[in-house]
Each structure stands twice: as C-alpha cells, then as structure tokens.
C-alpha cells in the first residue's frame, strides 16, 4: 500500500466516523483517528493499518458517547 492510498483510506475513515458519531465534535473524531494512526507509525506492514485505525478510533469514540 502506498502512502497516498493509506492517506485516502484514513480520510474515508474520518468521514465515516464523523457521520457515525454526530454527537462527538469533528475535532474529537479527528483526534481519535490521528491518535490511532500514530499508534501504528513505524510498522513495516501497512496493508491493515486503515482497518485497525478505524477499529481503534471507533472504540475510543464509543466510550466517549457512553460516558
């Protein structure tokens, strides 16, 4: 996966999560996605990073909504 492809998929993740969590500010959603993405920085195999980022960010955002 190229960096451009990964960035595009992360952008799509941001869009999906913003729509899924309308009660959470766009900044909080972006922060959750950026934090999850940073967690995988430096890992050599990038193919599943967008999926893992979405899962990690979704879990964090879900906890914000239920709190």
Description:
The protein has 67 residues and is an all-alpha fold. The protein has one domain: Helicase, Ruva Protein, domain 3, CATH 1.10.8. The model has no long low-confidence stretch (mean pLDDT 95).
Descriptive key words:
67 residues, mainly alpha, Helicase, Ruva Protein, domain 3, 3 helices, 75% helix, elongated
In short:
The protein is an all-alpha fold. It has one domain: Helicase, Ruva Protein, domain 3. It has helices at residues 3-20, 26-39, 49-66.
The proportion of residues forming helix, as a percent range, comes to over 70%
Q: What is the highest CATH level, the class?
A: Mainly Alpha
Number of domains: 1
**Strand residue percentage:** under 5%
- CATH T-level fold name: Helicase, Ruva Protein, domain 3
**Count of individual beta strands:** 0
- H/E element order: HHH
Structure annotation, total helices: 3
The rounded distance between the terminal residues' Cα atoms is 36 Å
CATH architecture: Orthogonal Bundle
Give Rg in angstroms. 12 Å
Overall geometry: elongated
- In terms of structural class, how would the helical and strand content be classed? mainly alpha
Unreliable runs? none
- How many strands, what sense, and barrel or not for the largest sheet? none
Nearest-integer average pLDDT? 95
Protein name: Three-helix bundle dimerization domain-containing protein
Organism: Rhodococcus baikonurensis
């Amino acid at each position: 996966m190229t960096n451009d492809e990964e960035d595009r998929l992360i952008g799509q993740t941001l869009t999906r999560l913003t729509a899924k969590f309308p009660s959470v500010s766009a900044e909080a959603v972006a922060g959750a996605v950026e934090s999850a993405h940073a967690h995988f920085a430096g890992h050599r195999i990038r193919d599943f990073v967008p999926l893992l980022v979405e899962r990690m960010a979704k879990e964090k955002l879900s906890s914000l909504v239920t709190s």
